[in-house]
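Entry 14. Ran structure prediction on the chain below.
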Amino acid sequence: MLHLSFFPLLMLLLAATLGAAFPQDALKKSCSLSKYQFLVPHELKAMQKMKEQFEDIMLLSDRKCNTRVFHRKWSPAELSVPDRVMLVEAELDLTTAMLALPANPSFTEMRQRPLAFLTQAQEDLRGCMATEAPSHQPSRKLRHWLQKLQTAKKTETAGCLEASAILHLFQVLNDLRCAALREQCT
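Output, structure tokens:
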């Protein structure tokens, strides 16, 4: 009887020892974006509802925006995988910042689920950049687009940047899917 209770204690001790030998941070070092290859329908639905509500709000406003941040003459498929990850990271930085802006209470509530999803994706991408390509230099195409984004952040109003980010939300999600594929995407 003594031997039966000793075995679980030994297993517990072994698990604690192995846990100390391999800290949790070491296990997190791998980069996996595979969960973004196919987005869950309820996440897409929440984003679609938010975008539709925003479009309704836009119809009632008289905003005049000239920003073309998300318009590019090239496709993310033309970029290397580290460039795609950098592109999506920059897009997500803008989008999450815009979704975090104060809004009317009903729209703030509508933003919560998409904001949480996009913030998690942003954290996952940052982890990938830190582990897989910490010193990656962007290509000329991407560098030019990143400069255009920085200029827009300085010259455009928050309302115009918000509109651009929300209206191009599904482009950002497609770029995220493309970065998650880790190979050529379409």
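The chain has a mean pLDDT of 80. Will compare against last week's run tomorrow.
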